[in-house]
Design goal:
single chain, 487 residues, 1% strand
Length: 487
């Protein structure tokens, strides 16, 4: 096929991110400088984010049979790039430029995050099983290194090995599922598979088995029950900014490609597979929330709560008509904002030199009297995750409930209401801990280095955004309504 200027404009976000990776790599080879690496990464990500605007003008456009750039891809590309930018800012605050140096090399962290982000961009625009696999591996492999980045901490190393082994098992299921699907449909493109399955009416048992195995591989990455066992350990062991990346950019990319696959081939979400998805959704909502109840570690609590949140998202995937696409878009945006805020507070409370992150709940006891700004941000994030009105999380949950009611999935709606009720308890428990009075406490806000101030300003902006979208969600709704899938 011939490449025209339009193709390059459509691919600009991915090309700029890839160019940034090369520039950062050469800069590290030339001279190790933490701040320089950070600034180059941020500049590249901002350029990639801006390049989405011209890409929207030429969309929808099939760039090679593997990638389709449409409004759907552009929305999720923007979401991944924003999440990556936030994680890079948090990583800079976390690694710090202080005299007591981080014992390893700091610069490679940015390189790995950028590579994982490039994988995410490929994933959300994939319209072919080969594109899906390339994107998924490009996203996953750098994350193995990121999770184990604090190699001097045995928990981080253990988390990296766990994630790598289980992720490899997930990829094996995915590949086997693709092989079975290809054997049945005779095509690797999502469109071709959709047409082949639609032609036969009900998908054959071979196609259902293939789709089922692919679902297992993707459920591993999204940590849906019963493939969730790695989540709390990996979240706890990974450095805080990496856990933020894993919870936001990584999961958004995988969920977006899952939506594309299931929406373009409607037969995929009918029959047995629809029932399987329903069971996984209910199990994820209930298990995620019930297991979060017993946690005294903030990262593990957020890990279990993310299992529940992707269970909520599956409700829209099962409904797969009417408001479904819109609900998924709104929920993912609000989920990313709140998760970045919550992990951001843990990041600014932590330092890699102490051996482990400040993620135990007792370390947040009476935080309001020491760090009032961070407490304000974490309070808003907990309210938003619980889906309390006037926060962004409420709008997301409202849309998911509306989708469930519209498609009359009463069991799913019931489990969402029950899960949300359980969730309110443990989110409020975290909030109460923040405001407890400790004896002999003097109120002061800790002195911050400039890189931590940048992280703090970003967190305050996230908290304001979570409130703003809760009060006036119209701009977000307009944005999401304009995104559609082109099959």
């Amino acid at each position: 096929m011939e490449f025209t200027t339009q193709h390059f404009i459509a691919l600009a976000p991915l090309l700029i991110t890839s160019a940034t990776i090369i520039v950062v790599m050469l800069a590290i080879a030339w001279r190790r400088n933490h701040s320089q690496t950070f600034l180059l990464s941020v500049a590249g990500l901002n350029l990639a984010l801006l390049s989405i605007l011209p890409a929207l003008k030429v969309a929808p456009l099939a760039v090679t049979p593997l990638l389709q750039i449409d409004t759907f891809a552009c929305l999720y590309m923007a979401l991944i790039l924003v999440a990556t930018l936030a994680c890079v800012t948090l990583a800079h605050a976390y690694l710090g430029d202080g005299g007591s140096g981080y014992p390893g090399n700091r610069e490679e962290l940015y390189l790995l995050i950028l590579m994982a982000a490039a994988g995410g961009l490929v994933l959300v625009s994939a319209q072919h099983l080969a594109g899906l696999f390339i994107g998924l591996e490009l996203l996953s492999v750098p994350v193995y290194g990121l999770v184990a980045y604090a190699f001097f901490n045995k928990r981080s190393l253990e988390a990296g090995i766990k994630y790598m082994v289980l992720s490899a098992a997930g990829s094996a299921f995915l590949l086997f599922g693709m092989a079975l699907l290809y054997a049945d449909a005779g095509s690797l493109s999502f469109n071709g598979i959709g047409q082949a399955l639609a032609a036969t009416g009900l998908p054959s048992s071979l196609a259902q088995l293939g789709l089922g195995m692919m679902l297992i591989g993707l459920a591993f990455k999204l940590s849906l029950v019963p493939f969730h066992l790695w989540t709390p350990d990996v979240y706890e062991g990974a450095p805080a900014p990496v856990a933020a990346f894993l919870a936001t950019a990584s999961k958004v990319a995988v969920f977006a490609v899952m939506v594309r696959l299931f929406q373009i081939s409607p037969a995929a979400s009918s029959g047995v597979l629809s029932d399987v998805l329903t069971i996984i959704a209910i199990a994820s909502i209930l298990f995620g929330n019930l297991l979060a109840l017993t946690q005294s570690n903030l990262k593990r609590l957020l890990g279990y709560s993310s299992i529940a949140h992707f269970g909520y998202l599956l409700i829209a995937l099962v409904a797969s008509k009417g408001l479904a696409l819109e609900a998924i878009g709104v929920y993912l945006v609000t989920y990313v904002i709140t998760s970045l805020g919550a992990f951001g507070v843990i990041t600014l409370m932590s330092s890699p030199y102490n051996g482990r992150d400040a993620d135990a709940l007792y370390e947040y006891r009476g935080l309001f009297w020491r760090r009032p700004y961070l407490t304000a941000v974490l309070t808003v994030m907990m309210l938003s995750l619980a889906g309390i009105p006037l926060t962004a999380g409420f709008i997301g949950k409202f849309y998911i409930i509306a989708t469930g009611v519209e498609s009359q999935q009463w069991w799913l709606v019931g489990s969402l209401v029950l899960g949300s009720a359980i969730g309110v308890f443990y989110y409020l428990r975290v909030m109460v801990t923040l405001y407890l009075m400790e004896p002999n406490l003097r109120r002061h806000d800790a002195q911050l280095h400039w890189e931590q101030r940048a992280g703090g300003v970003m967190l305050l902006a996230i908290a304001v955004l979570a409130f703003f979208l809760g009060l006036y969600p119209q701009p977000l709704l307009n944005l999401v309504q304009q995104t559609g899938l082109t099959g």
